[in-house]
Amino acid sequence: MFFYEVNESVYLTLDLNDTQMTFVHFFETKIANSLDDFIKKLMKTMNTFLIFEEDERVDMPQWKELLIEVEKIESKYDSSLRNPVSNSEIIKMKQTIQKKLGNIIIPESYIDFLKNVNGIDFNGLVIYGVDETLLDNEVDEEVQGFIETNELWYENDWQKQYIFLGDSDIAWFCYDLNERVYVELDKPSGTLIQFFDSFDSMLSDALEASLL
To answer: What is the pTM for the complete model shown?
Structure first.
């Protein structure tokens, strides 16, 4: 707790990280001119935070919940999900992509996935991770790296219009650079199976299929 003085009056506030900063802002801009006013502002602010946190939970991508189910199944076989990648590993990945694959920008939602788990290999579904050579520490399990795998697929010119993010026994999961949509393609023909408006929805659909 700490005290803050305004116009010779002393108010008590709680040290609640970002909430504290909001209260200080009220004081310094003299929005709260009395204790009653301060309490009203405080309650309004706390309600805003609660609404914001509730919205965050509602907007959480479905794939994060599905990953929990995958982890439960993996644990039955004394296995586990891979560790998340670090910011430094993401930076190295982006730099190497520019050198080896050209001016490709990987989706932020895919980066968010990597910060939860460095790719997955589950029940025939593979979502690529940061290449082993770019990781800060050695790993026991083989990782199908994003860069090395895209280099492989790019041996065919027609496939260069896609950013390959994963695959299964019968499909590729990609971002179409020309159409700017996420797509599931038949493997190996490349025929469109379906498209998605986001990486999150594509990943969720792929994980759901792998859990059937």
So the answer is: 0.72
CA dist., res. 102 & res. 72, Å (int): 38
Give the integer Cα–Cα distance in Å for 92 and 111.
Answer: 13
Token duo for residue 118? 């460095």
Whole-number CA gyration radius for the chain: 24
The position carrying tokens 């479905």 is: 62
pLDDT tens per residue, range 161-212 = 999 999 999 999 999 999 999 999 999 999 999 999 999 999 999 999 999 9
CA distance 5 to 143: 57
Coil, strand or helix at 71? helix
Q: C-alpha distances in angstroms, 25 versus 13, 19, 171?
A: 12, 10, 53
Residue among 135, 133, 173, 134 at smallest CA distance from 153 = 173
Residue ranges with strand state E in 117-204? 120-122, 125-127, 162-167, 171-176, 181-186, 192-196
Tokens standing for 32? 């709260």
Residue with tokens 């076989």: 77
- Cα–Cα distances in Å, from 163 out to 81, 148, 190? 24, 12, 13
Are the beta carbons of 197 and 181 closer than 8 angstroms? Answer: yes
* Dist CA 63 CA 37 (whole Å): 43
From residue 189, alpha-carbon distances to 79, 127, 171, 172 in Å are 34, 20, 9, 10
Question: Where would I find the H helices in the chain?
Answer: 18-28, 35-58, 62-76, 87-100, 108-114, 146-153, 199-210
